[in-house]
From TrEMBL:
This is Copine Va. It holds the Pfam family C2. Keywords: Repeat. SMART domains: C2 (SM00239), VWA (SM00327). InterPro entries: C2_dom, C2_domain_sf, C2B_Copine, Copine, Copine_C, VWF_A, vWFA_dom_sf. It comes from Cirrhinus molitorella (mud carp). The lineage of its organism: Eukaryota, Metazoa, Chordata, Craniata, Vertebrata.
Length: 531
């Protein structure tokens, strides 16, 4: 229902997409659709191909114009309205379809724009295959050969790149190799007819493996599976030249072939997986008295403190993937009114039955309010808030929900053993933990929890996946005072691992994107209130 700007006929609309630079906040024209003549309900064919990053806030602006002449200058055409959104909002909407009103012309209803996103499937399949060989040439003086195979994909320029090596099967001329799985891209770069070269060798301990022979095939041939077409003669070209009666150096047979799509983060989001965001804030005395400017919790009327900045940077991105925008916000390590008991998981809004805050603004407001009422105390215990989120995650393990806990802390942890135990248990659940360390403390304990170098373990049990990502806030403070840019970098680094962590969970549980059931509230837990 676009505005009609033409006197004698309907508008001739065109849509222009602008993207915004992270640093400059300058809008840049990204592209234009085609013009569709005489319609107020255009369905544009030309698509925009954008790079998508879960960990970035990618602002988009869509402007609609009524095109009246051949001029490329938009100022010479009638403006019909515009809308703003993020790429995350589009992909995070049900079915990755977002409907928004067009605005920008005061007092006018400018109609609606419908945005849909789909991921370009640049061949995400993985092939699993198994081979055996018969009557290979004997290369070893004393025993039989020890054969293995090497696979190469051919490049555009006719050269070959190694893409797979089988294991060595010892002392046999009729080996059966283990099945192996390889991305189809790695085998043929998505071109099914490109040739694949396979060389067969006899393994020698000193590394001077003897060449037995080679054959070529293609992905298309292999994908026919076990058949007479997939029995290959292994030929040694030198022998073939020398010996008139040479036939081959054995044969290789394809025993089985199957192909499976590798699912991406967006496949799950599009199928309806919701990401639930919970925040936990450190209210221990080591942060300093909030009324003093040296405190990490200091409320400066002119500038956000480190806690608020880290919260906003991460939360603004994650909120696009949570349909109700209601987030539980917890505090730990404070004495609560009226009786001064110490709590390690108290709701920032003071409501034990409903710790949910409405959007980022709601969380920041509750955080500021709670600083006025609670007394900073200690010790610094992480395990209670991790177990709090784990209880919710344990109730929905069907892939329809994934939980992200953001802990912001000054880093001096008191319950290391319990926290490790909590993380090892949480690694089995649909959840990830982000820790942002503020202040100048030594964060050695936090680095240990982030299992990038050494996988975390508790009482001899290794965590099933690495689910913790830690970053120190001070590494992102921009010397020039450009907080926007430094916070975008912080969010990028803490969120970058989450898509992979979500996929690993789904894979380990054998959950495919289209199987995710619709939303439901786990029994015995307060359902997320709708507002």
């Amino acid at each position: 229902n676009l505005l009609d700007r033409d006197t004698f006929s309907k508008s001739d609309p065109l849509c222009v997409l602008y993207t915004q630079g992270v640093e400059s906040k300058q809008w840049r024209e990204f592209g234009r659709t085609e013009v569709i003549d005489n319609t107020l309900n255009p369905d544009f064919v030309r698509k925009y191909i954008l790079d998508y990053f879960f960990e970035e806030k990618q602002n988009l602006r869509f402007d609609i114009y009524d095109i009246d002449s051949k001029s490329p200058d938009l100022a010479k055409h009638d403006f019909l309205g515009q809308t703003f959104c993020t790429l995350g909002e589009i992909v995070g909407s049900p079915g990755s379809r977002l409907e928004k009103p067009l605005g920008g012309i005061p007092g006018k209803n400018c109609g609606t724009i419908i945005l849909t996103a789909e991921e370009l499937g640049n061949c995400r399949d993985c092939a699993t295959m198994q081979f055996c060989a018969n009557k290979l040439d004997k290369k070893d003086f004393f025993g039989r050969s020890d054969p293995f195979m090497v696979f190469y994909r051919s490049n555009e320029d006719g050269t070959f790149t190694i893409c797979h090596k089988t294991e060595v099967v010892k002392n046999t001329l009729n080996p059966v190799w283990q099945p192996f799985t390889i991305p189809v891209r790695a085998l043929c770069n998505g071109d099914y007819d490109r040739s694949i070269k396979v060389e067969v060798y006899d393994w020698d301990r000193d590394g001077s493996h003897d060449f037995i022979g080679e054959f070529t095939t293609s992905y298309r041939e292999l994908s026919r599976g076990q058949s007479q077409f997939n029995v290959y003669e292994v030929v040694n070209p030198k022998k073939k030249l020398k010996k008139r009666r040479y036939i081959n150096s054995g044969t290789v047979t394809l025993l089985s072939f199957s192909v499976e799509a590798e699912h991406t983060f967006l496949d799950y989001i599009k199928a309806g997986t919701q990401i639930h965001f919970t925040v936990a804030i450190d209210f221990t005395a080591s942060n300093g008295n909030p009324s003093q400017s040296t405190s990490l919790h200091y409320m400066n009327p002119y500038q956000m403190n480190a806690y608020a900045m880290a919260l906003k940077a991460v939360g603004e991105i994650i909120q696009d993937y949570d349909s109700d925008k209601m987030f539980p916000a917890l505090g730990f390590g404070a004495k609560l009114p009226p009786d001064g008991r110490v709590s390690h998981e108290f709701p920032l809004n003071g409501n034990v039955d409903n710790p949910y805050c409405n959007g980022m603004e709601g969380i920041l407001e509750a955080y500021h309010e709670s600083l006025k009422t609670v007394q900073l105390y200690g010790p610094t215990n992480f395990a209670p808030v991790i177990n709090h989120v784990a209880r919710y995650a344990a109730a929905v393990q069907d892939g329809s929900q994934y939980f992200v806990l953001l802990i912001i802390t000054d880093g001096v942890i008191s319950d290391m053993a319990q926290t490790k135990e909590a993380i090892v248990n949480a690694a089995k659940l649909p959840m990830s933990i982000i820790i942002v360390g503020v202040g100048q403390a030594e964060f050695d304990a936090m680095v240990e929890l982030d299992g990038d170098d050494v996988r975390i373990s508790s009482r001899g049990k290794l965590a099933e996946r690495d689910i913790v990502q830690f970053v120190p806030f001070r590494d992102y403070m921009d010397r020039t005072g450009n907080h926007v840019l430094s916070m975008a970098r912080l969010a990028k680094d803490v969120l970058a691992e989450i898509p992979e962590q979500l996929i690993l969970y789904m894979k380990a549980r054998g959950i495919k994107p289209n199987q995710t059931p619709p939303d439901y509230s786990p029994p015995g837990l307060s359902p997320t209130p709708t507002v």
